[in-house]
Amino acid sequence: MTVQDISSLPPARGQLLAGLRDILPLAIGVAVYGLAFGLLAAQAQMSGLQTGVMGTIVFAGSSQIIAVERLVAGAGAGTALLAGLALNLRLLLITASLRDELAGRPWWQILLGVHLATDENWALMHAMRARGRPAGYWYLVGGGLALVAIWVLATVAGAGFAAAVPEPRALGMDFAFTAAFIAILRSLWSGNAMLLPWAGSVAIVLLAGLLAPLDPTWTLILGGVSGAAVAGAFGHD
Amino acid sequence: MTETWTLITGLAMATFAVRLSGYLLGRRLPDHGPWARGLQALPGCLILSLVTYLLMQGGPQEWAAGTAALIVALITRSLPLTMGAGIAAICLLRAFF
């Protein structure tokens, strides 16, 4: 399907397909991590069914990796759950910032939308909108559906063919998301009003890293909230 | 085996609760003024914090590859090209330095 076809479709379906299409470069990175997670799941003696169910109903890659890694290290389910949950607290900020997309929608769309919200499709939606493209709820859902499918396929495949899975770092894929988020930041930059909040976020993350090495989740939340606080306190409507 | 199912269902419910709570929290914040401005600035600030953190965890090779990715992003504004440039740069740097 070409770009012209998509723009002539009804808004919801057009956005869903655009979301599916635009997420593909990021989905390749997700697939590589999915294979790596499958490797870990095999070490934890998880079956293909368990791996697939976990990918579908948890659908939060980094927390799945941490939690199962704890399990492999011999921790109990409770400890592993807490480690995974801590990493997911930033999702609170992600879905909080989705309120305009979710406002006035039926409850099933709200539940679907929040479950499918991940760093990748949420960030991409904001980046596309900052560039003047129509990207809202269905764009987010389209990207999310593509990511669920790829994540489940890759994790189950990784668990099944553990011996043949390459290490992400050996392919340079550990840098894929850093590069992707740099591209997304470029699209989100909309002028000098963002200079102060962004500088605040960077300063706080650097300070936290140098002075008081915290758990990554808390560093991210502190940095994100600090920048937002600067925008709230010193910005203008 | 039971341990694994406990973890899967527990983490799924906890993660969904976090996602839903974020929405309920965001819905209660005012539409105008400082809170709205903060919420609007949040995505960029959170993604920038993540990139800063990831680059801090790396060394000179990651910083150089990040610079290469940023230059391509500034010129092209393209996600696939920026990802390609970043991955190519980190592979070259790790192979030759």
Automatic annotation (TrEMBL), chain A:
<feature type="transmembrane region" description="Helical">
    <location>
        <begin position="195"/>
        <end position="212"/>
    </location>
</feature>
<feature type="transmembrane region" description="Helical">
    <location>
        <begin position="137"/>
        <end position="164"/>
    </location>
</feature>
<feature type="transmembrane region" description="Helical">
    <location>
        <begin position="23"/>
        <end position="42"/>
    </location>
</feature>
<feature type="transmembrane region" description="Helical">
    <location>
        <begin position="218"/>
        <end position="235"/>
    </location>
</feature>
<protein>
    <submittedName>
        <fullName>AzlC family ABC transporter permease</fullName>
    </submittedName>
</protein>
<comment type="similarity">
    <text>Belongs to the AzlC family.</text>
</comment>
<feature type="transmembrane region" description="Helical">
    <location>
        <begin position="73"/>
        <end position="93"/>
    </location>
</feature>
<dbReference type="InterPro" id="IPR011606">
    <property type="entry name" value="Brnchd-chn_aa_trnsp_permease"/>
</dbReference>
<keyword id="KW-0812">Transmembrane</keyword>
<feature type="transmembrane region" description="Helical">
    <location>
        <begin position="49"/>
        <end position="67"/>
    </location>
</feature>
<keyword id="KW-0813">Transport</keyword>
<keyword id="KW-1003">Cell membrane</keyword>
<keyword id="KW-1133">Transmembrane helix</keyword>
<feature type="transmembrane region" description="Helical">
    <location>
        <begin position="170"/>
        <end position="188"/>
    </location>
</feature>
<keyword id="KW-0472">Membrane</keyword>
<dbReference type="Pfam" id="PF03591">
    <property type="entry name" value="AzlC"/>
</dbReference>
From TrEMBL, chain B:
<keyword id="KW-0472">Membrane</keyword>
<keyword id="KW-0812">Transmembrane</keyword>
<keyword id="KW-1133">Transmembrane helix</keyword>
<feature type="transmembrane region" description="Helical">
    <location>
        <begin position="38"/>
        <end position="56"/>
    </location>
</feature>
<dbReference type="Pfam" id="PF05437">
    <property type="entry name" value="AzlD"/>
</dbReference>
<protein>
    <submittedName>
        <fullName>AzlD domain-containing protein</fullName>
    </submittedName>
</protein>
<dbReference type="InterPro" id="IPR008407">
    <property type="entry name" value="Brnchd-chn_aa_trnsp_AzlD"/>
</dbReference>
<feature type="transmembrane region" description="Helical">
    <location>
        <begin position="68"/>
        <end position="93"/>
    </location>
</feature>
<feature type="transmembrane region" description="Helical">
    <location>
        <begin position="6"/>
        <end position="26"/>
    </location>
</feature>
